[in-house]
Amino acid sequence: xxxxxxxxxxxxxxxxxxxxxxxxxxxxxxxxxxxxxxxxxxxxxxxxxxxxxxxxxxxxxxxxxxxxxxxxxxxxxxxxxxxxxxxxxxxxxxxxxxxxxxxxxxxxxxxxxxxxxxxxxxxxxxxxxxxxxxxxxxxxxxxxxxxxxxxxxxxxxxxxxxxxxxxxxxxxxxxxxxxxxxxxxxxxxxxxxxxxxxxxxxx
Length: 203
What we know:
The protein is α+β, with helices and mostly antiparallel strands. It has two domains: about 1-75, Glutaredoxin (3-Layer(aba) Sandwich); about 90-200, Glutathione S-transferase Yfyf (Class Pi), Chain A, domain 2 (Up-down Bundle), CATH 1.20.1050. It has helices at about 10-20, 40-45, 65-75, 90-115, 130-150, 160-175, 185-195; strands at about 1-5, 30, 55, 65. A four-stranded mixed beta sheet has the order 2-1-3-4, covered by helices on one side. Strand 3 (about 55) and strand 4 (about 65) form a beta hairpin.
């Protein structure tokens, strides 16, 4: 199996961290340059018509894109050490927090990066004011997480899950645009340091 990615991109890092937690190895990683536009080539679009990374290519040449779809595939293959829950409630609760962290945080940081830096100005119309607004919203969500973590060890309760991976990668990515955990966000900082100490955070 192959994973097409750029290792520093947040969604690629999210999959790498998930796979490290699951103990999955033996995959071939193929570099796809985002700045150089490798992902918008006609050859890559055959693997993912939306031209996004990462993409998992199976041995039968079937392709799976979207980072959470890739994670769910490996969760099903490797059910031990579950990161997406076991009971119906656990699965729903983790999915709820994963989506909150993705939609209201990780995606917002991504739009803040794209629109405030103009990194992809050759293929999109960056709107600086929208980028600045997105980064403000990201800070609001970080304050929300800090309050939530006052009474929880991890994002979705008392066990590490994919929701923690998404939130951690979003915070790491936010540093690129100078959005960092505030000094008074002591609960979020405690959680962040805990996640950062995991071997998978270096994957």
